[in-house]
Amino acid sequence: MSPDWIGAFLIGLIGAGHCMGMCGGIASMLTIGQSQPSKTIPLFYNSGRLISYALIGAIVGGTVASISEISSLNNALTWLRLAAAVFMVLLACYIGRWWQGLLAVEKLGQTLWRFISPAGKSLLPLKSPIHAIPFGFIWGWLPCGLVYSTLTWSAVSGSALNGALIMAAFGLGTLPAMLLMGFGATYLHKLQQSQIFRNLGALILLTYGLYTGYGAIILLSIS
Question: Residue ranges of the domains in the chain?
């Protein structure tokens, strides 16, 4: 298993509290017009969300790898890996609530989201539980600093497949919290809002980011 997959999974697992906060109202939106909401809706919705993550990861990873290969820039991926390490540090600061600078990056996606979100709203009310899959696919493009940070790792993954797997690992990390939220559980949400939990997770991500950044700097210095 690639260390980047593990790192992406940890981002999703530790940062899922942020996802729950952003997507908390979606669970109620999915039940609009349904007298007896199906318990499979959260599963279908999150399946669509993970598919969207894997797709954008494949697009970003494949595009950057192709450009790097065509341009013969041997150091390009190393520089991008250094940038990914910086994003990891910013993400650690955000999760630990030490500095909220990552929100500025999150806002960059608002313009695109204004064009995408009507497509998701047009699917409501859901005609059947399985229609939650395309709804989740669209809502996976919701502007999110965690997603953008993880995408930087997809960009340096070296291929479309690795980019997709990194984003899928991130999505799997968010899955437990998102499914429990969909089924009405609150304990995990309280745990992830704990400052001790957030600080511990932020320190893990910070260490990983600094380690990756150090490795990139070493590679650049000897190239």
Answer: 40-222
